[in-house]
């Protein structure tokens, strides 16, 4: 049976502008075939196989014909396929051509619309595409045409009322302005160019038809960018958003429904994820619960696997009644509390009672850091396996580490060159223990923050306002 192919619009760039149906289809997908302009942060949460078929201007590493055949072949293997495109698949995204090809090959498909940059990209720069005082209509025109295509009907375009938006037109900007003026549009007509709309590196400039090419060259604005012509451009200064962390790009560990992600984005920052190490459960023996003693939880994942082992034996947390529960840091303490358990205290090796059993639970390698210093029993409930990160750290202004484990997750997955870049990035460590881990690994620009999201936001604002 052929699998469903979903042609999904990813929106202009901000991962939170994806539709709910688009998100659900990505969660259900076996394979995601995605374009160059899709934000990597949008792909991070999904476990499907990911295939990059991105196209650069004048360079297509995978042709459209190959993409069409790929979608058909994957569907015929019974896989659920997402074809993920920036913007909307049917607004100059060649989604119509892909849909035709799928239909001709009897492949079931659907279209999940996305926010087109022609509208959302303008809004991000403070330009409404319509306004009662300036435009009651709008026209969206592609800067690309088929190789044998005719010249655009400039006479018609130049005399249209309302807002005119050119997509994929940066290479044609000099020709666009020349043709519009030559066919009767006033040379003082307002024009704006918005680059990387809704991304962290969004930039926008405005001028008029006579001078926009000069302005764009002076400011070095290049593709991907959209061009907007019309009176609505006059509103850009008044309506352009100004948020405290706008233009900043942060790297954080992946977590589903991340509150840290939300907190940073709400202040205008762009956020991307690095992958956590893969956790593999281990077989282990449980301690003698009747004996009582001190149970030291070095990380919450370890305790999660510990709980799962209890439940398989028909036992729950009540088995720990005779045990003092100790959290290794504030993060573990908080996570235990979220799970309905209050830690008796935070870990301090000087306070341990060695007259009764002392048991550490944690990740296999991490537990070895305690072995030499403290005589106790150690239960490794899982082991972590490194994931190659493949992240261009040059694109980031800072990294936020909520835990020591997250520091190790990123560091161990980086190449030596990436570690060198990482060592000079601003690293915001949530708690002194996390800061110590950063410094132990040679990170030079470490900023310790009290472990709360609000403290992270306030500290980031102070650091980048200097």
TrEMBL record:
One of its GO terms (biological process) is methylation. Residues 380-457 form the Tetrapyrrole biosynthesis uroporphyrinogen III synthase domain. Its EC number is 2.1.1.107. Signal peptide: none annotated. This is Uroporphyrinogen-III C-methyltransferase. Belongs to the precorrin methyltransferase family. Keywords: Methyltransferase, Porphyrin biosynthesis, S-adenosyl-L-methionine, Transferase. Residues 5-211 form the Tetrapyrrole methylase domain. InterPro entries: 4pyrrol_Mease, 4pyrrol_Methylase_sf, 4pyrrol_syn_uPrphyn_synt_sf, 4pyrrol_synth_uPrphyn_synth, 4pyrrole_Mease_sub1, 4pyrrole_Mease_sub2, CobA/CysG_C, Siro_Cobalamin_biosynth. GO terms for molecular function: uroporphyrin-III C-methyltransferase activity; uroporphyrinogen-III synthase activity. It holds the Pfam family HEM4.
């Amino acid at each position: 049976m052929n699998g469903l192919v979903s042609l999904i619009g990813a929106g202009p760039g901000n991962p939170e502008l994806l539709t709910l149906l688009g998100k659900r289809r990505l969660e259900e997908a076996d394979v995601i075939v995605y374009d160059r302009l899709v934000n990597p942060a949008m792909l991070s949460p999904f476990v499907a196989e990911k295939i990059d078929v991105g196209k650069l201007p004048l360079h297509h590493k995978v042709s459209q014909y190959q993409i069409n055949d790929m979608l058909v072949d994957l569907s015929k293997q019974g896989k659920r396929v997402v074809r993920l495109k920036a913007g909307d698949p049917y607004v100059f995204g060649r989604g119509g051509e892909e849909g035709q090809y799928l239909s001709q090959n009897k492949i079931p498909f659907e279209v999940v619309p996305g926010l087109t940059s022609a509208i959302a990209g303008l809004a991000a720069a403070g330009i409404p595409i319509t306004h009662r005082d300036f435009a009651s209509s709008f026209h969206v025109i592609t800067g690309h045409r088929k190789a044998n295509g005719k010249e655009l009907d400039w006479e018609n375009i130049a005399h249209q009322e309302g807002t005119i938006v050119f997509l994929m037109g940066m290479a044609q900007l000099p020709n666009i302005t020349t043709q519009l003026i030559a066919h009767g549009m006033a040379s003082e007509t307002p024009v704006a160019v918005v680059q990387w709309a809704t991304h962290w590196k969004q930039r926008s400039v405005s001028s008029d038809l006579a001078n926009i090419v000069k302005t764009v060259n002076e400011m070095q604005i290049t593709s991907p960018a959209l061009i907007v012509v019309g009176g609505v451009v006059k509103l850009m200064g008044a309506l352009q958003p100004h948020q405290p962390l706008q233009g900043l790009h942060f790297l954080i560990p992946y977590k589903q429904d991340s509150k840290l992600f939300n907190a940073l984005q709400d202040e205008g920052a762009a956020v991307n994820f690095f992958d956590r190490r893969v956790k593999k459960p281990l077989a282990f023996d449980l301690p003698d619960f009747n004996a009582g003693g001190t149970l030291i939880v070095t990380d919450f994942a370890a305790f999660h696997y510990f709980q799962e082992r209890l439940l398989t034996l028909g036992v729950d947390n009540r088995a720990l009644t005779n045990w003092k529960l100790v959290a290794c840091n504030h993060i573990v303490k908080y996570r235990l509390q979220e799970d309905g358990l209050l830690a008796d205290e935070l870990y301090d090796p000087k306070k341990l009672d060695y007259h009764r059993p002392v048991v550490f639970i944690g990740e296999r390698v991490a537990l070895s850091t305690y072995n030499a210093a403290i005589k106790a029993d150690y239960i490794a409930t899982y082991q972590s396996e490194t994931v190659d990160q493949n992240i261009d750290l040059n694109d980031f202004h800072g990294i936020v580490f909520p835990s020591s484990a997250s520091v190790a997750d990123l560091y161990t997955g980086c190449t030596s060159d990436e570690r060198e870049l990482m060592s000079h990035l601003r690293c915001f460590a949530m708690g002194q223990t996390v800061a110590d881990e950063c410094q132990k690994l040679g990170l030079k620009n470490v900023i310790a923050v009290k472990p709360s999201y609000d403290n992270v936001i306030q500290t980031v604002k102070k650091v980048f306002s200097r």
